[in-house]
């Protein structure tokens, strides 16, 4: 049995941010931290005080995190980026919101005394005899302290207060991982006469500064009364900020942030407990039952609007693992089509069918999307042309000079814009309509079945376009057009578009949507200024029908079980790209010669690299030999965004460390996450590591001279980012689905079981007339079977939970 904690957060937008630049605007982006580890960074939105990011992340992490923090920053090309404000949400607060958080939250000021991190290792015990009572405080070490100096380190010392006495440790220079190993002793005579609130020991950690005041690094405190009963208190203790300062009321002067946050903590049972649920789902998809009492119908009815997205994701992944994703989608689509009377409203709602189709296209079709759109999207970003068709929005000052003969007119800008948009749109349409052979077989078969269901439901020449519109609605309106509008959210670009490029993408997305709608809205509405593109849109609609005919021209017996499973074949490359690798022998070389650009490939079996993607000679590390994948402190090499991969050849040899530099924090997090996922089940994972490097005969982090000394910081191998390309995990998917079903159990019982529940006299009457036929039908009904599965899983969870509660005291006695 395992535990799975998923922290989902979406940074939607900001509002009324303060201006940090002389231009009267800001260039805001967000940094997200879980405790003290940066886990994500949004793209920068240039020159905007009301930015929209729309970026979402799912983080898999241990249960023991404390705080989720969002920092809003202003990017500066020269100097350090400015801090605008932050939002901090405790784990307790997030967990207390079962439906999650979705609200505007005011930013608060960033107080350095509140920005503490790290832990301290202490041994406390009271020595008593007939004459006196002394408190011995053994200060051993600390780890992961906040960097307060420009070098990225601190000069920490400990200051302890007890019984009106103050003692200090020595100062350890230039480290965030100090080792003191000092005993400080306090005389406790007369302390019983003090106020009970003052009968404490307070241990503070400070950064010593030669000039100016010392910087606070955090503190812990203990009441003395429990210490007098216990022989000793020993262990690592989390450093906390000063006091319990109240949240600063700034009245929104720093602006606000709209965030969505949801925390789910799952107990993953052994696989055998989910087999009945999986089997029930499989049988429901393989059966021919299309009634309102079928399991597919029941699932759709039980899903709330809030849960439909996550339920769709889990169902699609479960059926992908079973090789039945296309069959499942066909069931959902058939139900939606049969219950739609107006073809103009087909798949227009956020039904379970629509959500499931979207998720299937993202999981199966993302590489296809990248291959089709990335070249033209990259060109649009690089050219940065000023494009505008709306006469009310044409800005003469922002346009580039089109002619060398003088200033340009509004008509010239419009003509230039039409020419640019036609060129981009033609390339996009050519790329999409020429991609039949690149489209995954699973998507093609899914669209073929959808085409058939719509044609059966709406036959005849009057509905000739409905079967095309159903497919193009998904492929163009829900897949290609959103990716063109916001390439960052579909991993086509690392950054959001600047305002000029964003406008170009918006106009192109509108045109692609019109093509997906088969040009039905052309000539109507308020945006008549798009009319110069209408001839090209109409021409593309004619080609679209031929494209869709060729797209669905696939063998119907080409079942996608093989396709869905090969998506996650072990040899498939999980991540690849150029990184900068530090030469292992380059200890004394000048910095610019120590890093070499190399192309890396990561599969579930190996991490390989060479000089270029086409280079035949590759070096590699087997994944099963990876022991840790961690960040590197900036002061180790005076470089940002560095990580280390620690591997071992065999048990007899020490670890080998490969240092790699990424170009930004997002790339760093993505590689850390990918490497941690593939090595998570390795047998020789390290519990600790050195965040620094061994240079000049000592570790730069903890200053220890022994190269083989145990690491000074805990590893973070379990912290990973969720991604559309994650491998399937049927137990985790089934557990999340069970959680949603459990919350809707009462709905299931009241809506679907009333007709199957009878009084004793009614049951006797049924037996007399129908024998056991009715009782057998009731017992085998989908609703009854689903309720039974939910109740069995609920009992299993209760059993494991009880067992855990019984084991905790036993474990405590053993330790």
TrEMBL record:
Name of the gene this protein is made from: RASAL1
Record-annotated PH domain positions: 572-680
GO BP terms: cellular response to calcium ion; intracellular signal transduction; negative regulation of Ras protein signal transduction
Ranges for domain Ras-GAP: 307-517
The entry's keywords: GTPase activation, Metal-binding, Repeat, Zinc, Zinc-finger
Domain C2 residues, every copy: 1-105, 116-237
Keyword Repeat tagged: yes
SUPFAM superfamilies per UniProt: C2 domain (Calcium/lipid-binding domain, CaLB), GTPase activation domain, GAP, PH domain-like
Pfam families given in the database record: BTK (PF00779), C2 (PF00168), PH (PF00169), RasGAP (PF00616)
Protein name: RAS protein activator like 1
GO molecular function term, any single one: zinc ion binding
């Amino acid at each position: 049995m395992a535990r799975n904690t998923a922290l989902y957060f979406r940074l939607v937008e900001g509002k009324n941010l303060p201006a940090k630049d002389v231009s009267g605007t800001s260039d805001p982006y967000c940094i997200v931290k879980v405790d003290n580890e940066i886990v994500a960074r949004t793209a920068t939105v240039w020159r905007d005080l009301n930015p929209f990011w729309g970026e979402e992340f799912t983080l898999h992490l241990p249960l023991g995190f404390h705080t989720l923090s969002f920092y809003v920053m202003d990017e500066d090309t020269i100097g350090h980026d400015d801090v605008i404000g932050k939002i901090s949400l405790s784990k307790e607060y997030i967990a207390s919101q079962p439906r999650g958080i979705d609200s505007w939250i005011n930013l608060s000021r960033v107080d350095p005394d509140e920005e503490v991190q790290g832990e301290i290792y202490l041994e406390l015990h009271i020595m008593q005899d007939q004459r006196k009572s002394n408190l011995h405080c053994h200060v051993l070490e600390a780890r992961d302290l906040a960097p307060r100096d420009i070098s990225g380190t601190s000069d920490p010392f400990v200051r302890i207060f007890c019984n009106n006495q103050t003692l200090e440790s020595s100062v350890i220079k230039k480290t965030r991982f100090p080792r003191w190993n000092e005993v400080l002793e306090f005389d406790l005579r007369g302390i019983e006469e003090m106020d009970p609130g003052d009968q404490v020991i307070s241990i503070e950690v400070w950064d010593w500064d030669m000039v100016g005041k010392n910087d606070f690094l955090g503190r812990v405190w203990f009441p003395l009364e429990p210490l007098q009963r216990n022989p000793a208190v020993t262990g690592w203790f989390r450093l906390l900020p000063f006091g319990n300062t109240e949240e600063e009321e700034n009245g929104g002067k720093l602006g606000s942030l709209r965030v969505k946050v949801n925390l789910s903590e799952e107990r993953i049972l052994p696989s055998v407990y989910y087999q009945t649920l999986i089997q029930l789902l499989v049988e429901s998809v393989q059966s021919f039952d299309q009634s309102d009492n079928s399991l597919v119908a029941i699932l759709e009815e039980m899903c709330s609007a809030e849960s439909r997205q996550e339920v769709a994701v889990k169902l699609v992944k479960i059926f992908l693992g079973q090789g039945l994703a296309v069959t499942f989608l066909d069931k959902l689509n058939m139900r939606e089509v049969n219950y739609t009377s107006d073809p103009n409203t087909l798949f227009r709602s956020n039904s379970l069918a629509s959500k499931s189709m979207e998720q299937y296209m993202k999981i199966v079709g993302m590489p296809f999307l990248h291959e089709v759109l990335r070249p033209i999207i990259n060109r649009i970003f690089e050219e940065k042309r000023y494009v505008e068709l709306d006469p009310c929005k044409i800005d003469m000052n922002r346009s580039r000079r089109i002619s060398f003969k003088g200033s340009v007119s509004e008509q010239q800008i419009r003509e230039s814009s039409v020419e640019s948009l036609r060129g981009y749109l033609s390339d996009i349409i050519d790329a999409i309509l020429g991609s039949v052979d690149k489209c995954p077989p699973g998507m093609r078969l899914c669209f073929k079945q959808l085409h058939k269901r719509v044609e059966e439901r709406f036959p005849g020449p009057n509905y000739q376009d409905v079967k095309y519109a159903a497919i193009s609605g998904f492929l163009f309106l829900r897949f290609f057009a959103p990716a063109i509008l916001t390439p960052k959210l579909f991993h086509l670009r690392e950054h959001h578009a600047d305002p000029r490029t964003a406008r170009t993408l918006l106009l192109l997305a509108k045109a692609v949507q019109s093509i997906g709608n088969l040009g039905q809205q052309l000539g109507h509405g308020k945006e008549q200024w798009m009319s110069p593109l209408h001839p090209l849109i109409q021409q593309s609609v004619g080609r679209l029908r031929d494209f869709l005919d060729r797209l669905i021209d696939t063998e119907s017996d080409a079942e996608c079980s093989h396709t869905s499973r090969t998506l996650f074949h072990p040899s498939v490359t999980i991540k690849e790209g150029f990184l900068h690798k530090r030469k292992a022998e380059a200890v004394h070389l000048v910095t610019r010669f120590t890093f070499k650009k190399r192309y890396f490939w990561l599969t579930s079996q190996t991490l390989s690299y060479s000089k270029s993607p086409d280079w035949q000679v590759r070096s590699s590390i087997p994944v099963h030999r990876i022991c840790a994948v961690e960040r590197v402190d900036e002061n180790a090499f005076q470089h940002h965004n560095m990580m280390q991969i620690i591997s071992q050849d065999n048990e007899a040899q020490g670890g080998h460390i490969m240092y790699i530099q990424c170009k930004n924090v997002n790339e760093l997090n993505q590689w850390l996450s990918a490497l941690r996922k593939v090595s998570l089940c390795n047998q020789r994972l390290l519990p600790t590591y050195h965040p620094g490097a061994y240079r000049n005969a000592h570790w730069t982090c903890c200053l220890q001279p022994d190269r083989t000394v145990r690491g000074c910081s805990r590893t973070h191998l379990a912290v990973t980012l969720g991604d559309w390309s994650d491998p399937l995990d049927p137990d985790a998917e089934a557990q999340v689905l069970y959680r949603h079903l459990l919350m809707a159990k009462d709905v299931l019982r009241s809506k679907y079981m009333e007709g199957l529940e009878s009084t004793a006299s009614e049951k006797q009457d049924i037996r007399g007339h129908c024998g056991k036929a009715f009782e057998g039908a009731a017992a085998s009904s989908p609703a009854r079977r689903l309720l039974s599965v939910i109740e069995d899983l609920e009992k299993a969870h209760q059993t494991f939970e009880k067992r855990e509660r019984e084991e905790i005291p036993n474990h405590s006695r053993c330790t």
